[in-house]
Specification:
This protein is 47% helix and 8% strand. The protein has 297 residues and is an alpha/beta fold. The protein folds into two domains: 178 residues, HAD superfamily/HAD-like (Rossmann fold), CATH 3.40.50; 68 residues, Orthogonal Bundle (DNA polymerase, domain 1). The longest helix has 24 residues. Its cofactor is Mg(2+).
Length: 297
């Protein structure tokens, strides 16, 4: 019995030490490998998810992921990765499947993908691989990248209401700016936080990219809303203290809800999404002049 009490005491002491370290260093428990996503015990029903958005009223800012959230880009990433990996003899030379891409690449930074695919490669070889991959992606995306339906209308709505706007992505900056340019939104976003902006190991699912965007926008988490499509992205937005709308197919709905999404939609034409946004934003304020954030940047 005494031994059991001693063991329990030691366990409690270790737990206390860990919590103190977390508090001192500002480590967020969700910032860990996306291979083991944190699940929320009582996720909001996606069809009642507007209540999560209402927490942000009066709405101040919208923060968008890019790949899969603003545009249908996964097929182009998959094509580029599949071509390069097959040439390298990865997976025995068999093409990787879209399911493999969704499970191990979607929403992740090149750093994370590289560690998964080639854990023993030196950094220089990884850099060369991803440079080639991004060049292929740029070529393929230029041939047919398209927006998620309803995005243009949502962007007009956000501008009319004078909301602050940022794109927050794990993609490299050149990749992010390419996609935003193809979508015709280069003048819409007041800033872009890209995969390389938060330091090694601090991309999504860590909250750092979204916290950086909030800081640069001068916006509060309590009055901001995130749009995402991946589990790691939803985790990052939730960890940063914001409600998250997930743009996801039916097959992925349960996963993004478990990750903490307040609402799940197929695209931006969803009537319940619009009702929730209108309720949270209030009256239009035509954003015809550059905002203070625009001027600062």
């Amino acid at each position: 019995m005494s031994r059991d009490r001693s063991a329990q005491t030691l366990t409690n002491q270790l737990s206390l030490i860990v919590n103190i370290i977390i508090a001192i260093k500002g480590i967020h428990p969700i910032c860990r490998s996306a291979e083991h996503p944190q699940e929320h015990s009582s996720p909001m029903d996606p069809k009642i998810g507007g209540n999560g958005i209402s927490r942000a009223a009066p709405l101040e800012a919208l923060l968008f992921d890019i790949d899969g959230t603003m545009c249908v880009s996964d097929p182009f990433h998959h094509r580029a990765f599949s071509e390069l990996l097959q040439n390298l003899g990865y997976n025995g030379g068999a093409p990787i499947t879209p399911e493999f891409g969704m499970a191990h690449m979607a929403g992740r930074s090149n750093e994370q993908i590289g560690r998964f695919l080639f854990p023993d490669w030196p950094q220089a070889r990884l850099d060369a691989f991803f440079a080639e991959k991004e060049a292929l992606f740029a070529r393929y995306a230029g041939e047919g990248l398209r927006e998620v339906p309803g995005l243009a209308e949502l962007c007009r709505w956000a501008r009319e209401r004078g909301l602050k706007r940022a794109a927050v992505t794990n993609a490299p900056r050149a990749n992010a700016e390419l996609m935003i340019g193809i979508l015709g939104l280069a003048d819409f976003f007041q800033l872009v936080v890209a995969g390389e902006d938060c330091g090694e190991g601090r991309s999504k699912p860590c909250p750092d990219p979204y916290l950086r965007a909030l800081d640069l926008l001068g916006a509060s988490a309590e009055r901001s809303l995130v749009f995402e499509d991946s589990v790691v992205g939803v985790q990052a937005g939730v960890a940063a203290g914001m409600p998250v709308v997930a743009v996801a197919s039916e097959s992925r709905e349960a996963k993004v809800v478990a990750a903490g999404a307040s609402m799940v939609v197929r695209d931006y034409r969803d009537a319940e999404l619009w009702a929730a946004l209108e309720a949270a934003a209030g009256a239009p304020k035509i954003d015809s002049e550059p905002s203070a954030v625009d001027a600062k940047l």
